[in-house]
Amino acid sequence: MNDFKRYLVHISGIVQGVGMRPYIYNTAKKHKLGGFVSNQGSSVSIEISGNKVDIHKFLVELLEKPPIGSMIDKVKIKPMDGDTSDGFFIIDSSREKIQQGLIPPDMAICDDCIREMLDRRNRRYLYPFTNCTACGPRYSIIRTLPYDRENTSMSDYKMCTTCKDEYESPDDRRFHAQTNCCPECGPKLTLLDKNESPIACSNPVLTARQLLYEGKLLAIKGLGGYHIACNGQDEKAIGLLRNRKRRPDKPLAIMAANLEAAKLICYISEKEGEILVGRQKPIVLLDKKYPQLLPENIAPGINRLGVMLPYTPLHHLLFHEQLRYLVMTSGNTSGMSISYRDEDALERLKCIADYFMVHDREILTPVDDSLVRVFDGNEMISRNSRGYSPTALKIDSESDIIAAGAEQKSSLCLVHKGYAHTSQYLGNLEDMSVYEEYLKLVKRMNSMLDTGSQIIAHDLHTGYLSTQWAIEQSTEKIPIQHHQAHMAACMAEYNLRQDAIGIIYDGTGLGTDGAIWGGEFFVGTIGKYTRVGQWEYVKLQGGDSTIREPWKTAASYLYAIGVRESGYLYNVSNQDFKAVQNSIKHNLNCFESSSIGRLFDCVAALVLQRMHITYDAQGPIELESAIKQDVRELYPYAIDEKEEKLIIGYEGIILGILQDLKSGKGTSYISAKFHNTVCEATVECACKIRTRFPIDNIVLGGGVFENVYLLKNIIKALKQHSFHIYYNRKVPVNDGGVAFGQVAIAAKVAKEGTYVSGCSF
Q: Are 64 and 209 in a shared domain?
């Protein structure tokens, strides 16, 4: 009898919504063990009994070969008294939330379900809601934890006898699949016209497919919200979509029928291919192939395409031999939040879509498509959403913390029991629909995670709605400088505890001196920073309009270096040009900025004549696309020391660009030369800082580092100087990562009681 043992095993991590209980059940039965398994709060509890050798084998298998999509973080094992159990069972979930678990993200349809759905002999043939324990909606339909059907929007559907048999059969891959359903008992599709009248048809999907092929625009309810879709090979339909959506220039995402179709339009590395066909199926930024198979108006002026593969059963059913590419863009008008409620979508999108493909499964949490790129063989997340969100990373904190995040590319981050849970991307909080979703998400995540009283971390900028919300709350608040949050986000992702030099290149962020920062060099650790370098301040005129109208930024830089001629900005009247410069002279509506993002805007206005933008960072993105890759020349620049800070000057760079423009140099040459100069100046400044501080770690952060040419060449040069380089991969390098950085600093402050944000050596 000494060989027989009984244990209570508690596992946490991503262990719900991934088929963990059925997996444990079958593994326990295989090893002839007794006991039971249940969800406990947001974790999984197991009582296991039997031969200790068999229990050991069971635990090894559980840890080494868990279900696809799961992530076991902690395992607690406690010996128990009593006799061994006869048989192994799945029992009802406990309501007790004694241990923090992780919220499961939505998962793309698996290959087994695709095969079933396309099999004429299968009862789920062409059923657009086919799923199993390995795939389907999770986060977007969860009301609360534990992840049981009754706690999701699938609670509205009672399983038919056949589905119930699958659900209760240990040998079936739908054993305890909480979203299990079929055409008899599950959600239904309906095709509507823009007046909300049903379209009479035997199969809504086949009719929708034909409408797309004919050039119609469809609003399609998907996993986490609505898409606006059209034929990706129909230039006229794409132009119509842009016109109706008021999105004249911003690149549109393409859904390709399969990997082979994607390879016809883009260059795809092995790693990029793995991500495209993987379980998350995000949009992947890929290099275009030329000549282009698809119309130029999908991504005008850009040498990359955002491509994804079908990730729901419905998506797979929309494609056929003559329809291999679909534009799939977020179901919203420019700037608004993604539509996910039927009544809102039918009202908001009727001016865009010709038809609506709707279904009756409620979306509880809106989740847009994630956006990633591959850099140096590594996946980098640019937009954290479907398939990845909520992202949970370990953090050293005993306090509950909520970070309000940034104004643009907003997200939330909640710390609870040692995990930082970063929400999905929401958008720009200046739009009221986005802010309303932001407020709902605060309540929803607090409820799901069952958090207690929280410390609130927020940006310094009191004009941000996220900051205003934070200030209104009656709890402890910690204001955090924007770019130091960027630095902390990278350091916390890698758990980097040593001192580092932070190079933070961004567009906008309020500095501790009241200026707008964005071209910063720090030294320090999480929560303790000294600003040791920056790009030279320029006085910009026009407030936020300088971002939307880059010519104003260019006029401001030209004034700073003594250029009073408007002729470099062809499409700007001399009167408007002089008005800006006269306002600078009299300091009217002006602010100082060290932002490298604004310097890029200036150069884009001068070189590309990009006077106005219609989407975020349009000028810099087009400037990067214009680079001539074999150029090695540089513009002159200076690095001076002022008030114990290193200052990188821009006068020589801009004068050099003006000279090249006068000489008739091409835009590709000038763009490459400018990028090379920024890289060279950045690396030289980092080396000068190291002469004063014995630091070899370099942290790169801020949205400007989404520029791959800049990131690649700065990293290459820094490595030649033997620096150790860190850049965000799991957390967006742009403002989508600010909330995670805020909680990292707040956790440090809560533990140690200090936050030092100095400004000099």
A: no
Whether 402 is in a domain gets the answer: no
Domain containing residue 57 = 4-90
Structure tokens at 698: 């370099």
Q: Look at residue 195 in the predicted model and tell me its pLDDT.
A: 93
pLDDT tens digit string along 475-498?
Answer: 999 999 999 999 999 999 999 999
pLDDT of residue 86: 80
Whether residues 211 and 333 share a domain: the answer is: yes
Considering the entire predicted model, what is its pTM? 0.92
For the chain, how many structural domains are there in total? 2
How many alpha carbons fall within 13 Å on the CB side of residue 634? 11
> What are the DSSP calls for 422-442, one per residue?
E----B-TTSHHHHHHHHHHH
User: What's the pLDDT tens digit per position in 79-92?
Assistant: 888 777 788 888 87
- Whether the upstream peptide bond of residue 198 has omega within 30° of 0, thus cis, is no
Q: Which pairs with CB-CB distance under 8 Å and at least 24 residues apart come from 644-647?
A: 644/760, 644/761, 645/531, 645/532, 645/533, 645/534, 645/759, 645/760, 645/761, 646/521, 646/532, 646/533, 646/534, 646/685, 646/688, 646/689, 647/533, 647/534, 647/535, 647/536
- Domain finish residue from 326, 344, 359: 359
- The pLDDT of residue 101 is 59
pLDDT (0 to 100) of residue 236: 98
E strands along 498-573, which residues?
A: 500-505, 519-525, 528-535, 538-541
- The pLDDT score that the predictor gives to residue 760 is 44
Rounded to 5 degrees, φ, ψ at 308 are: -135, 165
User: Residue 220 domain-assigned?
Assistant: yes
In a domain, 575, yes or no: no
C-alpha triplet 39, 42, 44: angle, nearest 5°: 40
Q: How far apart are CA 38 and CA 46, in angstroms?
A: 7
For β-strands 455-459 and 34-40, DSSP reports them as unpaired
Q: Scanning the structure block, which residue is given the tokens 């490595």?
A: 719
Best CA proximity match to 44, nearest among 80, 9, 88, 7 = 9
Neighbours of 634 (CB within 10 A): 18
Give, rounded to a whole angstrom, the gap between the first and last alpha carbons of the chain: 70
The side-by-side arrangement of strands in the sheet containing 34-40 is 71-79, 4-14, 43-51, 34-40, 88-90
- Return the sign of the alpha-carbon dihedral for residues 329, 332, 337, 340: negative
Residue 98 CB: number of other CB atoms within 10 A? 10
Q: Residue 82 CB: number of other CB atoms within 10 A?
A: 8
Strands 189-193 and 254-256 come out as: unpaired
Longest Cα separation, the chain: 96
Strand partners, 642: 645
Do 12 and 41 contact (CB within 8 A), yes or no? Answer: no
Ranges in the chain, pLDDT < 50: 1, 97-99, 760-761
The answer to whether residue 612 is domain-embedded is no
Per the listing, tokens 């040998």 go with 171
Residues contacting 514, CB < 8 A, separation 6+:
none
DSSP class per residue in 694-755: ---EEEEESGGGG-HHHHHHHHHHHHHTT-EEEE-SSS-SSGGGHHHHHHHHHHHHHHH---
Distance CA 119, CA 111 (A): 12
